[in-house]
Design a protein that fits this description.
homodimer; 199 residues
Chain lengths: 199, 199
Amino acid sequence: MDLDLLREATRGQMPDRRWKHTLGVVETAIKLAERFGGDIRKAELAALLHDYSKAWPISRMEQIIREQGLPSELLEHDRELWHAHVGAWAVHAELGIADDEVLDAIRYHTSGRARMTKLDKIVCLADYTEPGRDFPGVEKIRKLAEKSMEEALIAGFDSTITLLLEKGRRIFPLTIDARNGLIEQLEANESQQSNVNGG
Amino acid sequence: MDLDLLREATRGQMPDRRWKHTLGVVETAIKLAERFGGDIRKAELAALLHDYSKAWPISRMEQIIREQGLPSELLEHDRELWHAHVGAWAVHAELGIADDEVLDAIRYHTSGRARMTKLDKIVCLADYTEPGRDFPGVEKIRKLAEKSMEEALIAGFDSTITLLLEKGRRIFPLTIDARNGLIEQLEANESQQSNVNGG
């Protein structure tokens, strides 16, 4: 299926507001891929499809999670997370997307995961910072995203975790794994850097 | 070994300030056990021993983690967590404590864990709230501890997680599992309660 048909198929899954957000994520993902040496074609594709199932009825998502062998622990966590896993399943089943990197970037765009790929980071960060986003701290995340996807994503996860703490809601363990993994990557980069400088 | 000898052995592992804290945790753990129907003898024992290895040199703790088969992932996390696992190993190896409930309460007193036992909760909460503790939010946690160990511990973990977010430090996944588990317990209690009231 070519990109125009995929665009049309995706457009049909969601209301205008969500489609506008999707176009913002596509635009931002392409910029991030250019800035940080990512695969621009995959970034565009994953960004276009990232919210494919977001507007689907909860009951439909629940049925897919139960019947298609998606991680059942999803059902214990915030529904906000369901659409990412259901979306990865759906674009594979309905649109024939078979690129695992793209499917993973869709699957983990909300939670993150322990060892995020460059494409995971691009889609997740574009989702936090696309021009239509407005939440406390978004400007700081956009600023950090000019230099470091890791620092920007840590700030993004911090804002999500803080919100969940304030609301007394459960925190998805993958988000903690993701944040810990990004901190480790930064520390590894810094120690490499200081070896270079010191050597 | 009787309690007096254990007290003496523990006293010898730490400076005055830490010993004063230990006595505060013992006193608080006994009160919590009385208030919430816990095993008072085990609460006293686990509280007495909970910081047995806290003042040990980092190098000694690291050696024990490496040589005694303790979870090696500990080494990737904050050193603050090491003494709890090393302490459980040490009171078993050096003092002959063989009660798994007591050893677990020592092992998980800093991080918590997914399905905390009543004894885990007593020791962890006593450690947060003993009279010598003074940190932002401690009064709120003490107040909550009059009614619900679960609500008090969630507030305690919230304060720990918030501090780690502010400092840009890694969050131990067990703490997230612990907090999520406590929220689930509260939700289960509430739904039981509303069934009773509604039925």
